[in-house]
Amino acid sequence: LENLQPEIKKLAERLRYEVSVRGKQVGWSEKVARFHFKKNLRRIITELYVRDNCHPFKATLVAWVQLPMWVCVSLALRNCSVGAAGPEVQEQFSAGGALWFTDLTAPDSTWILPVSLGLVNLLIVEIFASPKMKVSRLQKFVTNFFRVVSVVMIPVAATVPSSMALYWLSSSCVGLSHNLLLRSPTFRRLCRIPRTSSDSATPY
Question: Does the keyword Lipoprotein apply (predicted)?
């Protein structure tokens, strides 16, 4: 997507000129000319996405699987912790913890898990927010929204059973490791990920 931006910009300038010329020939108003420009630009961009097999929707496909799974596993852990799955399961959870969170059915009174979760999530948001392409107003809003969500998750994680907080932290750590791995120039070369203008030789 990033590598397509210069080509899209060049084609948009050419299209703007062609629409301007055509508009003068047939007497289009500024509103009609703008409509034809946007309509044709959308078509051109879609053709480029198809050509390079990089439609932005593909980037959201993982979330459509990951989010429902995250919710279902969280609810399952809560049910196990409160005894909804049976008293014997709850008993195993109450004695199945480790380190300072030995009781997975109780919230983490030390707040280590919740604060760690908030910090890891904020780190993921900042990695995504690091400048790549020109950032739109919507992208800025989404970034700030997820920053707020990351902070709000701290008190939420402090009130739920430790089993849920531990799962959320583990999930976020895996997500962070994926993001850091995809920044590695060596890994990107191995996976044949195309170079972009914003790629850094020292991404960390």
Answer: no
Task: Give the DSSP per-residue string, 7-21.
Answer: HHHHHHHHHHHHHHH
Contact between residue 100 and residue 110 where contact means Cβ atoms under 8 Å apart: yes
SS3 call for 188: helix
- Taking phi over 0 as left and psi of -120 to 50 as alpha, with beta for the rest, 12 belongs to alpha
Q: How far apart are the C-alpha atoms of 158 and 160, rounded to whole Å?
A: 6
Q: Could you tell me which of 106, 88, 84 has the C-alpha nearest to residue 97?
A: 106
- Summarize pLDDT for 88-145 with one digit per residue, the tens: 888 878 887 778 878 888 888 888 999 999 999 999 988 877 765 566 677 788 888 9
Please list the residues that pair with 98 across neighbouring strands. 101
Amino acid type, 151 = V
Domain boundaries, the chain: 3-52, 60-191
End-to-end CA distance of the chain: 22
